[in-house]
Structure of 4-hydroxybenzoate 3-monooxygenase:
Amino acid sequence: MRTQVAIIGAGPAGLVLSQLLHLAGISSVVLEVRDRAYVESRVRAGVLEQGSVDLLRACGLGARLDREGMPHEGINLQFAGARHRVPVTALTGRSITVYGQQEVVKDAIAARLADGGDVRFSVSDVRLSGLAASPRVAFVENGREALLECDFVAGCDGFHGVSRSFVPDGVLTTYERTYPFAWLGILAEAPPSTEELIYCHSPRGFALVSMRSPSISRLYLQVAPDEPLSEWSDSRVWDELQQRLAMPGWELAEGVVLDKGITAMRSLVTEPLQWKRLFLAGDAVHIVPPTGAKGMNLALADVRLLGTALASWYTTGSRALLDSYSSDCLWRVWRAQHFSWWMTSMLHKFPDHDPYEEKLQLSQLRYLTTSESYARSLSENYVGLP
């Protein structure tokens, strides 16, 4: 087989890149190790920056997003027994939209297949070769060996994917920080208890109230990084959420828990994002703690640049944008890294947290809710830089 761009991974990054290339008249094949049902149902991120919404609309993936997405013009910060709204749209002119990552994936798969796109699920043993000049992707499909020849490979297969491993030793440098806590997240059949997200700093630990639809809530608790999920019954989760989020005159709506899991918290950047004819995007090369809602948005920002760079190469023969892909991505990646670290450090309870550190956190939160310029800085980063 032959295509122009082989894309490894059918998450938001790989699928949106395939759609962008299709619109530019560039052929691609998407290879995914999981089956379609798994990819379309895995619960991940749910907050889209303004730029991500604009990108999805521009590449024909905005119809259901516009019908079912939930635009938000502010977020709430809760601390010291009070809740404060940060009006992000009033401060920046931009907003966020709550729309689950799995919904973006469903929309992109449907669009690619409707256009005759080549998206292959449940492949295995993916191997890359010839990356310096003539890339080839070998894989197993339906028990049979297959070989795909291409001009470029886009590794959009996440941190545990194989693409990054085919870069020679000594080329990549990884910067990493692991946090001493994790998030326990639930998806619940319960109407949202608030119109906008609540980020809660509590003496018992961080909590977050979010949503996925008018009838589905997404909620998180800070827990220990080695916390056994088996020790958290549904009733214990709800009880802990109630205690951390308690406010006079406000109630947290409870319901049937549909999904429950624990997510480790870490920051990671591997650079450069390219080697020869292999280009890496999304979680394959950078991970952020979810506090800043940046993971999926960074992945989409990467493939927007990569799609533009590939289109430029095919139409003009110039490698300029391909050669600058890594540096063009990394300025935004590191800005998001800092913002996510800052939000995480300000809102979570650290082990052996002494009173001095807690006073610093509360000072930051009070300043955020009383200084327009400080609130504007948070808002600019939260809704996404242009």
Remarks:
- The CA atoms of residues 90 and 183 lie 30 Å apart.
- The first helix runs from residue 12 to 23.
- The first strand starts at residue 5 and ends at 8.
